[in-house]
Amino acid sequence: MKSLSRLSKLIRVILIVCIFASCGIFEAWAATATTTLVVSATIVDTCTVTATPLTFGTYSASSASPNDATATVTVLYTVGTGFTVAFDAGTATGATLAQRRLQNAVLSSDRLNYNIYRNTARSEIWGDGAKSTYTVIGTGTGVLTAVTLTAYGRIPTGQDVGLGAYADSITVTLTY
Question: Is CB count within 10 Å lower at the N or C end of the chain?
Fold first, then answer.
């Protein structure tokens, strides 16, 4: 009998719990808590600079016209951020910003004068801003949208030099 009485009490407790649960009384015992998730991001300056070759092709000292060519400098840079592009004098012996030189690959004492300009009139030497040279200033349009700059090269007429291939190497510096 005692076990039946205990079983009966247990069934009543279970029934009472079920009734309260179905009425939502236990929901009042539930609690919630909230917090704030802080979200942030930082954009860093991202940039690249590339340049196509400045190729003059064949030069003839007897030509009445200078030998002109162009190259493209491409800047990919963070939106709205300013930058400056400068060129050095090159690697040929005796080269300066005012007078760059292509050097003969075989006979290094042979040099062909030339220069690089930032304008189509070829009157503003593209250099580092020193000694009457200019730099090019721009604003980034994004790392997915290129800023394209044109370098205008010119070999003046009347330079009597030896046969062969002539070359130079210019360092392009992007400052931001």
Answer: N
